[in-house]
Amino acid sequence: VQLQASGGGLVQAGGSLRLSCIAYGNIVSVDDMGWYRQTPGKERELVALITRGGTIDYADFVEYRFTISRDNAKRTIYLQMNSLIPEDTGVYYCRANRVTLYSDGRYYTNDYWGQGTQVTVSS
Known about the structure:
The protein is mainly beta.
């Protein structure tokens, strides 16, 4: 399984970015998918999480600025980030929880991280 994240970049404060993450592989199903970030000097933290059924959880610091969405058919999640501030600068990682694969006649379930995409917000 590979999670390919994209959409990061450099933006001025107040600007917007849209991140995407696609899950590739011999996947049967994916439960939760989400975005995490690691900002300078801090531990990796949850940004937003969306279940297969569409239930969403946001970190408090999102404050209605970000929107997570999911296309189950495309095994893709998105993070629309608006009103970005310099404190949002960091590496954004996507994660897929309880990914079920089918291989050699058996089912396997694991969690996976994407490679990260850099978001830089200038003041």
